[in-house]
Amino acid sequence: MKISFNPIVPVKEQSTNVNQTNSFSNCVKKNFDTVTIHSNEEEISDQIFAKKLTTSMLNDINNKCAEPDREEKLRLLQQQIQSGTYKPDSITIANKILLLK
To answer: What are the domain boundaries of the chain?
Structure first.
């Protein structure tokens, strides 16, 4: 009994298999969504940090603009002290000393 194996495949059969594989892979590529994976986490965390910092700064600016000028507050406080109408709130002072509020 003689068993032989012919590893040489005719060129025509090889090209047919390649074309079938390419057409199948093209079909598969068209039917699925694509996913992009970023390997650089630092860029993403930097972008998040920049957004949070920008938001925080804008909030601080808006809060400062909403408050009356410090000079105006001081002027009103001086007037109240000079006229004797200034009455500090002892509970507020105690809370600030104890860092409660």
So the answer is: 44-101
